[in-house]
Amino acid sequence: MKSPMYSVLIVDDEKPVIESIVYMLQKYRPELRVAGTASSGREAIQKAETTKPDIILIDVKMPGIDGLEALREIKRKMPYIMPILTTAYERFDIAQTAFELGVQDYILKPFSREKLISAVDAAVRTLDRSSSGQGESLKHIEMLNSLQGSIEQLFFKAIRFGSSLNEFVPYVQMTLSLHTSRGCIGLLEWEKGMNNAGGGPDEGDQEQRIRTGQQILTRIKYKFTCLGSVSPEGIIFFFPEGGDGKKVPSSQQVEAHLQREQGMTPRWNYSTGEIVEFSRLFTSFQQAKQRNAAEGADDPEYIVVLSKRDDWRLAFSGMILSGDQAGVLRLLENEILSIEDMSLARAAVLYIGLYIEHKRTISTEYSLLICQAENREELHERSVRWFNQLIETASSLQEANIPGPLKRSLEYIELHYALPVQLSDLAEHVEVSPAYLSNLFTRHLGKTFVDYLTDCRIEKAKNLLAEKSHSIKTISHLVGYQDPNYFSRLFKKQTGQSPSDFRP
User: Fold this and answer.
1) What percent of the chain has pLDDT over 90?
2) Is the bond leading into 110 cis (omega within 30 degrees of zero)?
3) SS3 category, 426
4) What pLDDT was estimated at residue 358?
5) 7-157: CATH topology
């Protein structure tokens, strides 16, 4: 039976994108009617109310009301509408909201004609099933199938970064037909220095590593219930808890299976973490990582990097949030880019940079450039550019979102840093509680009130020292420290130089 004619509303703030979608629909799916177009979230809500479309193609990022907020309002009034998201960003929070809104598909820009038509055809099939009485469950199954690849990758990203996993529980349970919310993480990581003679891909051949990893993942999935994600470094698995608690393969089982299936002597480290609730899978991931590190303990540098990378992550996150460009560059060059093994240095940069992008909902293309760096000079130059971009983007987002009390506090400190400034007095000045103001500093600036005040005073002291017009004692008083000895110790701790040796 021929499908009834369905109508489509197209929403994007870029006119060429709208024109391209209209052209492709009219040429390749003329049976669909373009109900209208809109260039903003607010206009989309208005057009949806007047045109009553069956399908809406809507961009996520638009000025004013964004696509997700507009879609939430539209779905409230028209729950039957079939949404298809278009976006340039593959992010956990977008996929999470898409799942909640019953999004039919999630297309990453720039998308091809095939991808667009495929998504629209899937929406039409779902509408056909709904109209023929096959029910709401088929719509959700169709949606899950179309989103499965993206959500699965984001599920593993969330595990790596320690993000909340509660939103993924229904998805994972449905995908694997589970009746449990417990499981563990398994990590199969290629050994450093592995080559073809040892049964695996060359160190630098990332494409070969991924192909090999995908073959292994397919074979493991055939034998065990699991999800998995392949990268050049190896495979991360999620194994659900079985009824008998024995549904997780051991290292010996993995090795024996691969030898039998591929006739290869594998060179890797494979470990699993403890079986835990979904909310604690990051702990299971860390356990697997640590156990693999113990297996590869003949590589001291690898152990050092593994033991320090979480400290680096927190340090970089705080400095980027506070705009400390000099501190970021110092830590990047002295700690990360000084790692002798370039693959380890690259991995550390990626771990930190992607974590910050994820936490601050920032998206750049630098992670790909880091992966493509062919020598240490390129890695250094691209890493510095990436982290500078993160500082700039985080700063602009931060300025746009700083609450009024915190903004007034920063203005007060800028004018009165030379005076004794207490958190309680500042809170009274901006008419909030000290606890609330302290929380604002930590949440929005990544540092405490005292640390921010100290940084402000030290920066002022640097400027005064550069002028060479005042004694150290005078400068100490000018920036709010009555004890020059204390000021000197604090200055050296912050900058690595004493005031007398300071060179701007």
Assistant:
1) 7
2) yes
3) helix
4) 67
5) Rossmann fold (3.40.50)
